[in-house]
Input
Amino acid sequence: MLSAKSLFQEILDNDASFRLFCSIAASGEAQGGWENGRIAALVPQSERALAPKIARHGADEDKHGRIFHALLRKRGLAPVPVPPDTDYTMLLERHGIGLTHDKLTADRPLTVADIVTYLAHSRVTEQRASEQMRLLRRHFADHPDIGRAVRMISNDEDNHLAYCHEELLRLAHAGHGRAIQRVLRECALAEIRIYRDVSLAVMTHMGRVLRWSRLRNALLAAGIHALYAWERAVGWRRMVTLEMPERRDALGGPAPKAAEFA
Ligand SMILES: [Fe+2]
Ligand SMILES: [Fe+2]
Output
């Protein structure tokens, strides 16, 4: 049977595939944490009120990175290097999505246009993160080893997505609507391609580790291409809408103290 649940169960049950999964996840989260930390430090004066929320966003992603490392440690495993073709955040940056490394490492304040780019990029990638974590939560919320981590990260990703909607709507009302729509569209169309490529790469690496048959590899690749075809035709539109979220000010206030998994 090829369901998301059975597939992930298989990855979870094998040390080598679990190690690869957690290493890839931890590295993406840590990269997100670093980026948000830099953006928080470079927020322009006119958007100063955003700085603590961006810092909180970064702190959450750093926490997620630590959680994936803790899951590895709990099983007596060490992280492995992330294969470059599975590095979602690096590939997005390389395709010009989001703010460049140069901008983030320079010590010049960002512009409001940069903040629009950051939020639009996050609106798209947090939608992906939120959907993926909801999928894991649906099947593994009560899992003895990863259930707690999955529930916590999923709740955080929902917060991040709500925050992006709210802040982008605020900026749209302040006159940045056209720029927001343009960047959202660019980001979404690039993201769905990169997500397809990364999914194919991850499945290839997992297939090697788990010795999947050629038929199984072919079926999974066909599934990934079918998802891309749907996203390219209609699905991408779900990533560019803006709606006032039920959770307002989702990243307001200090990060709640979470008992960590280490
Ligand atoms: Fe995260
Ligand atoms: Fe996130």
Q: What stands out?
A: DSSP finds eight helices and no strands in the chain. The pocket of fe (ii) ion (ligand 1) is lined by residues 29, 32, 61, 64, 129, 153, 157 (CB under 6 Å). Residues 147-210 form the longest helix (64 residues).
